[in-house]
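All the exercises in this workshop are built on plain-text protein records. There is nothing in a record beyond a sequence line and a structure line. A learned vocabulary of local backbone shapes supplies the integers on the structure line. The question running through the whole workshop is how a given chain folds. Here is such a record, shown just as it appears in the course material:

***
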Amino acid sequence: MTMDTAIQYLPGVGPKRAQLLESELGISTVGNLVHLYPFRYIDRSSIVPIAQVHPDLAQVQVKATVQKVRLFAKNGAELPPEKLKYNAVSRMSVTVADQSGEMEIVFFKGIKWMHARLVPGNTFIFFGKPTVFKSWLKMVHPEVDAPDSSTSGMLTGVYTSTEKLKNAGITGRVMLKLIGTALEEILPVVRETLPDYILKEKGLVPLTYALRQIHFPVDQNALAKASYRLKFEELFLLQLSLLKQKYIRSKSAVGLQMPLVGEAFNACYNALPYQLTNAQKRVIREIREDLKSGHQMNRLLQGDVGSGKTMVAVLSALMAVGNGYQACIMAPTEVLAQQHFANVSKYLRPTGVQVRLLTGSTGVAARREIHAGLEDGSIGILIGTHALIEDNVQFKALGLAIVDEQHRFGVEQRARLWNKGYQGIPPHVLVMTATPIPRTLAMTLYGDLDVSVIDEMPPGRKPITTMCVGENKRHAMHNFIRDEIAKGRQAFIVYPLIFESEKMDYKNLELGYEEIVRAFPLPQYKVAIVHGQQSTQEKDFNMSAFVAGRANILVSTTVIEVGVDVPNASVMVIESAERFGLSQLHQLRGRVGRGAERSYCILMRGTKVSKESQKRLDLLCATENGFELAEEDMKMRGPGDLEGTQQSGLPISLNIASLAKDGLILSDARGYAQHILDLDPTLSDPRNASLAAELRRDPYIIKDYSQIS
């Protein structure tokens, strides 16, 4: 038997159980089962006297003697043991006692077997969750072992399960038994995946020891060693795969050489009314090095809301123009593309570089003009939506493609843009995101891109005052918005739902809109509404009315989350704020505070808010640092749930390591993977044969997130 043997051939499984294990947990081979690790452990080493058992304890183990057994029918009547029919029994009550006291053990299933086993006078170990009912201590469906059983006196793993598995009799105990059988079968033939020198240098235990101890640890120390070995290996192989891919591409991907900075760059830079931050200067230097290198740039630019990414994009585009190439900036929505166009046009005035806007609503005559200007090279920079990737859009010499909010575009869409490069050479690629991605997630999700971070805010940006208030302050909130509108400002009001949900009592967009219109009536106030159910034309019309200042209030769903720039908007109200993740709340807050005026973010919370949700809201009120918030968000919710950062999922699914909790191991694993590739970039050294073999396995053949050409 090997790791690849189908699970149905493991003793104790068979076709029926195999089908369930695959459909419920994705386990199709013996290897899958062995790599299903416990998510927690129960200490079975201590026996608790009944007198010390209380319902606050998670699970306890008592050693007690059966005193009395009673059987009850569905109507609650006790059944006499002499005329017993098990199909009439709905509950079995067992009174057990030790020297300190008594408790009741209750069974609703498996009664026939338990009735035969739990004979008064016999002693057993009962393990389960204690509860209290009418001041009487109970344990429902505990595990029952003989006093000399091997399950007591050890750490016992608890595995992921489902209702279907439990109903089919695949309980925690059965899983342990199956895993025990699997280990006996395959440990003798398991090959070590890491070379000896790595085990020695990193102080790692052998794989066979790690697999046995992760499932059946002899003590906490053995468990810690096993856990560290398996986490390190998982993260190390993932990073090795990403970095090797990056190395191969950097050597093979020829890039357009751009040695000059160019006159247009200098003209724009010298005319700036403010100094760039040190972070912006550092990122521009990094991009300049890439453009000079002769290899294709694949860089991710992360910058918090309002950190000045657009300025970096403009100066990068001007470097391309200064070397005789064209640049394009692709935005996910028409509103965002128009906004980029307005900002970029302003910056380009001193340069003489021609910039044009191409979106779905560009007219036929203007399109013809733009196509001609792109083909003869007179247009230096093109800004637009996915209209840029249409086949009839041909550049004379596209040298740099800048993609804003990259996760909003499909793989095929981006591939079509890369194919527009000069003489078949793909353009340099700069991917920008305002969604702060935790370091560990960026290392994994974009591990094969070079990452630049703008971690400094431009001077003069006033902090946004963030406050969290309840329903009783709604009237005061309306008055506050009226005061701001009287000063000539505007307000966003964001709702989490579009239509009424019977299960949720959250204020929704439709009711909210009606309420706002009543509180802010015409003709004094104008309220616009934007949501995902509208047509693009409707959305753009209402959004444009707000951007142009024709509407005082914009009521919307989270469609306004990314990039909309309305410097005159000074208030962001987020309804049912507890329903949003931290990163999303931070993105929404970033829609205000973009002008010279003081800005406010008001988090309206519902009446019932969980501790975790309140913690999120408190954190948002405490800091404006998006990276800090993203790290916290990932710790609270896990990496699989972060809006905007993981649309494509992780390159591989992690079995034991956690990006939220194992950041230090990840950093160490990445550094070590880099060290090995520096010495042996192709892993052709015989000592690294096992690593090369591991990277050829399916999970590590990772799709390339960056180039996608």
